[in-house]
Amino acid sequence: MSAPRTVRTVLGDIPPAELGTCDAHDHVFIRSPQLPGQELDSADAAARELAAFGAAGGQSVIQWTPYGMGRRAGRLPALARSTGIRIVAATGLHQAAHYTPELLDELRGEGLTDVFIRELTAGIGDSGVRAGLIKVAGGFHGLDAHARWTMRSAAEAHHATGAPITVHLELGTGALDVLDLLCGELDVPPERVVLGHLNRSPDLLIHHQAAQAGAYLAFDGPSRAHHATDWRMPDAVRALAEAGFGDRLLLGGDTTTAGARSVNGGPGMPHLLRGVRPRLELAVGQELVERILTVNPGRAFGVRWGVS
């Protein structure tokens, strides 16, 4: 008998069904030189934001913050306990622009695959928190040498652990290039890959091809109201659902700046359930949206750990 699938939260592994209503891509903590002065580094603000998400009906958050970007993994268990929100932490590496050259050289020397495997199996630093996914990133309409290095390391870590791989697509582009590399060249099963930010490039043909390949498609970041493509997201979801890919879809908020948090006057995590959900229900119906928020995340992030 094969081992059951579980989701690796910061408080331990749980059955996928226990995720409940899930924000499939967000950030409890994050910092980057690309976003100066907008760091998410306050534990108090994080607690209030998670509580607001819970008050809106949320039950779990998948944090995509990778290595070296202020994850504050040691803070996550206490936040999960105090707010009742299940949290999944990430290992992985973002685009090179988010790091110093010295840190990247250090990781090359240490071995990036080994870092990922250690954080998935032993824990992040001395926090005791094990990561539940590997987050990597592509470039704008292509994959540079850094992206290929991180994705190759992510694939190796996946094969060693079974962990899912989530991918930041720059402005929603490069999805097929990512799948060609991860699933074609590197033999990662497509159902273990989550493609993020597809709402930012509403190319319905690319969406269809990515879903047909077997990957999960995350429409994550609708809280950023300045994106002119936001209003097209329900149409993209409806087109995928009508093509039979409703089981491949995920939704997230991707709150990356302090100003975007609901506790600071922005839409924040609650917007996913208070704003996006009712709008999508008008487009594709309440039943499908419920499945996208509950069943699909459990399938995407539920893993038979140690089995690729």
Order of helices and strands: EEEHEHEEHHEHEHEHEHEHHH
Assign the CATH topology: TIM Barrel
Radius of gyration: 17 Å
CATH architecture descriptor:
Alpha-Beta Barrel
Can you say what the CATH homologous superfamily is?
Metal-dependent hydrolases
Major sheet size, sense and barrel closure: 6 strands, parallel
What's the CATH class, please?
Alpha Beta
Number of strands: 11
The end-to-end distance, rounded to whole angstroms, is: 16 Å
Mean pLDDT: 94
* Strands ordered across the widest β-sheet: 6-7-8-9-10-11
Query: Which structural class fits the helix and strand makeup?
Result: alpha/beta
> What global shape is seen?
globular
Overall domain count: 1
Number of contiguous helices: 11
What does the model show?
Zn(2+) 2 binds at residues 135, 168, 197. Belongs to the metallo-dependent hydrolases superfamily. Phosphotriesterase family. GO terms for molecular function: hydrolase activity; zinc ion binding. Its cofactor is a divalent metal cation. The structure is a single chain. The chain is α/β, with parallel strands linked by helices and 308 residues long. It contains eleven helices and eleven strands. It has helices spanning 43-55, 76-83, 101-110, 112-121, 145-161, 175-185, 204-213, 233-242, 271-284, 286-293, 295-301, and strands at residues 7-9, 12-14, 22-26, 60-63, 86-88, 90-92, 133-137, 165-168, 193-196, 216-220, 249-252. The longest helix has 17 residues, at 145-161. The protein is globular. The mean pLDDT is 94.
